[in-house]
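Hi Y.,

Following your request, here is the sequence exactly as I used it, all 213 residues.
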Amino acid sequence: MRVLHPVRAQEALLDAGTLVRPDGAVETWQVHRLPADRTAVRVEADGPALWHLVLDPDGRPERLQARLRDDGRTFEATLTFFEDEVIIWRRGAEPATESIALPPGTRLLWPPLAGRERCLAGLVGEAAGEAGGETAGETAAGDGAAARMFLLVRRGPPAGGGLSAHLAKLTIHPTPDGLTLTSPGLTDMALTLDADGRLAGWSEGGPATVRRP
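Below is the corresponding structure, written out as tokens. Let me know if you'd prefer a different format.
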């Protein structure tokens, strides 16, 4: 698969595979452990699109990079996450720079489905009441659920920024094999995990994207 950044000698392969969406679109990905227990998720998707995401040990985002092609135009974006904000840089799309304030502990949902179980790391047990109380950006929602702020990153045309990002509070509901995410005005999302805790499927109001054996 093609990647934005080559795998370095100090990285250790954790997982790799292919996801097939209901419309037939394919994502090929690799997950590597970085120094200090950080994680890198590399994705090549139809489009073509190349993605690179770095997560901290708790599943919080540190950096997201993308090289995308739309209507014959190639554009790039980098999102760098800090404790209280994310800075977005774009090349080939407007606006060139953007800053969004983030509540502490904000999680990420990015356009690829690969790696989403790592973006949601720890939230299954948290929703079931194992988190040990509320924090900024996290509130109890009742019935074994918890609410947390997410930055939702969506792909769009270069004239609209190429990648857009906005905050949403999602309620996390534990299920026997994963979790669901709900929020007023958004389609319900469901994550299923295999016996090893890896993403087995993802659905948003319809047929599920599945991991190819």
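The two ends are 17 Å apart (CA to CA).

Thanks again,
Q.
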